[in-house]
Design goal:
signal; membrane; AA-Vitamin_Transporters; mainly alpha; globular; EamA_dom; about 0% strand; single chain; 12 helices
């Protein structure tokens, strides 16, 4: 049970970003955003490690796992931020949410050694619910001019899903996320130095990027690693569908807004799909 609480904690961290920062990240270049956020994430996780382990040493995993971390942490966020710059926000958010679907599918495939139709259908239902939440009150238009952004958004889903499932299969006693964020921070600084001039960030930009680094990145990375290295990835995949509705609910609470019926219905669909997926998983485990 604790692994699913860790997963929910990470999901709440991700969901808090829109409510906490609003549009304060608008106008920042991708390299600058990555430098500030990953440096803050690395500092946060290192300080947390020092407090928890009473050691100043950083645990660096072997080369194979380190490459997995660079792929999942640096690679995902670079592609994600780039996709948001090339695609309308609602469409990008829906397409990047496919990582929840792929986590369920990849994990079920590894667990049962073949595709289970019931698992796939419930995963698609959860994805549909998430899309309903994101699309509420917005005009969705698929345009060829944004095709590159669409492809990058879909790639985000595959990167984070493969990283999460790969991390769940790695046998590590220590949490590798501090090392992963150090790698990402160093690569971000390098990318920033070789890229063209960037607009000067405002104080709001910097504060929002620092929050992004400490909570939706730093704290969530620790919680997500704890979750995937011990919990059932199929269940965690279903839980991750809750990210969009929780984000909408937090924004509504902070701004005193009402939540639309479509958002509520989408959340009901997600919860129903999660329950059905868990039931299907239990049935398949009993038959195995």
């Amino acid at each position: 049970m604790k692994h699913y609480l860790y997963a929910l904690g990470a999901i709440l961290c991700w969901a808090s970003l829109p409510a906490a920062t609003g549009s304060s990240l608008t106008g920042m270049s991708v390299p600058l955003l990555m430098v500030i956020s990953f440096c803050c994430a690395a500092i946060y996780l290192y300080a947390q490690d020092v407090v928890c382990t009473r050691s100043f040493r950083i645990y660096f995993p072997d080369c194979k796992v380190s490459l997995l971390g660079i792929w999942g942490i640096f690679g995902y966020h670079y592609v994600y931020y780039t996709a948001l710059n090339k695609t309308p926000l609602a469409e990008a958010a829906i397409l990047t949410t496919t990582w929840s679907f792929w986590i369920v599918v990849f994990s079920a495939l590894l667990l049962f050694r073949r595709i289970k139709l019931s698992i796939v259908l419930t995963a698609l239902a959860g994805l549909t619910g998430a899309a309903m939440v994101i699309a509420a009150g917005k005009d969705l238009v698929i345009s060829m001019q944004y095709m590159q952004g669409y492809m990058l958004s879909l790639l985000c889903g595959l990167i984070w899903a493969s990283f999460s499932v790969g991390l769940s299969k790695s046998n590590m006693k220590a949490n590798p996320m501090t090392a992963f964020t150090v790698y990402a921070a160093l690569l971000s600084v390098l990318m920033y130095l070789v890229s063209p001039a960037h607009p000067v960030p405002s104080a709001q930009n910097i504060l929002a990027a620092m929050y992004l680094g400490c909570v939706p990145l730093g704290l969530s990375f620790f919680l997500w690693s704890q979750a995937v290295r011990g919990g059932n990835m199929v269940v965690i995949g279903f839980l991750s569908y809750l990210t969009p509705p929780l984000a909408v609910l937090m924004v509504a609470i902070v701004n005193g807004e009402t939540v639309s019926e479509q958002v509520i219905f989408g959340m009901v669909v997600i919860i129903a799909a999660s329950i059905a997926g868990r039931f299907a998983l239990e049935q398949k485990e009993e038959c195995s």
